[in-house]
Design a protein that fits this description.
mainly alpha; globular; 14 helices
């Protein structure tokens, strides 16, 4: 009996010790796996926060007025809205850096391929980029329309901003600015003909105003973004538009006509936006660029349509307060 115990007990003890060690190993492995999962979540969260901040900072530095308007949106839609705005900035920067459309096609092709990749369902890889990361999240969350992104990109192929007619200018503004507003409406799950109609007119007004504001910063080597039909009808050439002499009444008349076109689109948009039953309160900040456009056109009118006037070029210091007041009142 003693001999049996002598041989069996050590075996049992070794078995128990082995079982305990195995259990400890399993527990350790589970803890390690859990820690790795937690770290992965933390890293993913940190990466997402970094990408979000990158988009926000990009819009703040390159598109200040729209940045202020977008800040007044509510989360989580605001985060997706900044992703769309940041994408627009990235695409716009491409056309600003190049003067030849053949050179500009390559970086624009990158963004076109990226958008195509984000909409493929075969899990194709897209470049690692903060804006792309945020945009992918926004597209998946809100089912944004691919067409609007494609129009944004294609509109930037006109890197010289050469327009033969006013209609071409309006089409450019529709694709390059209204498309952003359509996407922001989709971010808020608002797909209505009435809101799209208002966004179309507002985008055209903002696009024309953006081009007017760019004229004082043009050089003699750049084409002025003014339709040729307007220049010809007033006997004004590109050089005179760039010089923008205060006493040049013909240049003043061209500027007046462009500002009038923008103003008509702005008034049409504001008329549509007055129908509160068809314009949800949550999407009103999307249309706050109407405030910035109206304030610019008013300064331009007071300066007798002289684009180089200091009162026209200066930063609107009161704009943040004005936008906040409009948001507080719930009116555009």
């Amino acid at each position: 009996m003693w001999r049996i115990k002598h041989f069996v007990y050590p075996f049992i003890e070794r078995f128990e010790m082995s079982r305990i060690v195995n259990m400890q190993t399993i527990c350790v492995r589970r803890i390690v796996v859990r820690l790795k999962q937690q770290n992965a979540v933390q890293m993913s969260s940190s990466s997402g926060a970094a990408a979000q901040n990158m988009c926000l900072d990009l819009v703040r530095r390159h598109d200040k007025e729209n940045f202020l308007c977008t800040l007044l949106l509510k989360n989580p839609e605001r985060r997706s809205a900044f992703a769309v705005r940041a994408f627009n900035v990235e695409v716009a920067k491409v056309s600003e850096k190049v003067s030849s459309s053949s050179i500009g096609v390559m970086p624009l092709k990158f963004w076109d391929d990226t958008i195509a990749g984000l909409y493929r369902k075969n899990g194709s890889k897209v470049p690692e980029h903060p804006v792309i990361e945020e945009l992918a999240s926004a597209i998946n969350r809100h089912r944004l329309s691919k067409m609007h992104f494609q129009r944004l990109i294609s509109s930037r192929l006109n890197t010289n901003l050469h327009f033969a007619t006013v209609q071409q200018l309006e089409d450019y503004a529709e694709h390059s600015v209204s498309s952003v507003l359509y996407l922001l409406l989709e971010v808020h799950d608002t797909r209505s003909v009435h809101c799209d109609h208002a966004a179309s007119h507002l985008g055209k007004a903002q696009g024309i105003v953006n081009l007017l504001r760019a004229i004082p910063h043009q050089t003699l080597r750049n084409a002025v973004p003014v339709p040729q039909e307007l220049l010809i009808s007033h006997g004004v050439n590109q050089e005179r538009m760039v010089r923008n002499a205060k006493e040049d009444k013909a240049v003043e008349e061209v500027t007046f006509q462009l500002a009038s076109i923008a103003h008509r689109h702005l008034q049409k948009a504001k008329t549509l936006l007055q129908d509160s039953a068809k314009v949800p309160r949550k999407v009103q900040p999307i249309f706050y660029p109407a405030v910035t456009i109206e304030r610019f056109l008013d300064r331009l009118r007071q300066a007798n349509f002289h684009l180089s006037s200091p009162s026209v070029i200066r930063t609107d210091a009161l704009l943040p307060l004005v936008l906040y007041w409009h948001n507080l009142r719930g009116k555009i």
